[in-house]
Amino acid sequence: MVGARIRAALGSVLFLVIAPGTVAGLLPWLITGWESSDPWVGFQLLGAGLIVAGVGVLMQAFARFALEGIGTPAPVAPTEQLVIGGLYRYVRNPMYLAVGATIVGQALLLGQAILLAYALVFMAAVAAFVKLYEEPTLSERFGSQYEEYRHAVPGWWPRVR
After folding, report:
1. Which of 125, 144, 124, 147 shows the shortest CA–CA distance to 135?
2. 87 in Cβ contact with 75 (< 8 Å)
3. At what angle do helices 113-129 and 94-110 cross, to 10 degrees?
4. Does 46 reside within a domain?
5. Residue 71's Cα: distance from chain center in Å?
6. Fewer CB within 10 Å: C terminus or N terminus of the chain?
7. In the chain, how many domains are there?
């Protein structure tokens, strides 16, 4: 079991670098060159906060996939168990929300409105991916356990207790 978790952790780190690293790091840099338009300091602070929160949520979610799910978020190396702990108790898609928050944070921090448009495109793409691929795949893989989870936990707007 320890070996499986180590492999899952290594695979998750690799996927973290490849997927969110590209979507929330490389592509925003290619779009903006990290050039700032010197936005109002309040926007900069809010943006920095969103980036810190987004990265924190992303790290927690990736760790949860390796430790709880014994797998990775990558479709080619899925989890053995359905991940429903941690932030997944409140919202089914914290990873996508974290990446979106990071991109919006970059937009505010840099004063780059183009990144807001990019964030909208990203969220539309992941919403379609979730609906067309992820939900059917998880339903097939985990059956009634996933269906109960899906009905109990909202997909995009975190449940607050």
Report:
1. 147
2. no
3. 170
4. yes
5. 16
6. C
7. 1
Q: Which helix (H) or strand (E) is 75 found in, with range?
A: none
Q: What is the pLDDT of residues 61-100, one digit of tens each?
A: 999 999 998 888 988 888 999 999 999 999 999 999 999 9
Residue 98, in any domain of the structure:
yes
Residue 143 φ/ψ region, left for φ over 0, alpha for ψ in the -120 to 50 degree band, beta for the rest: left
**How far apart are the C-alpha atoms of 63 and 40, rounded to whole Å?**
35
pLDDT tens for 7-31 read: 888 888 888 999 999 999 999 999 9
Q: Is residue 157 in some structural domain?
A: no
Range of the domain at 95: 2-152
Q: What residue type is 13 in one-letter code?
A: V
Per residue in 106-131, pLDDT tens?
Answer: 999 999 999 999 999 999 999 999 99
Specify if 79 maps to a domain.
yes
Read off the tokens for 81: 């168990």
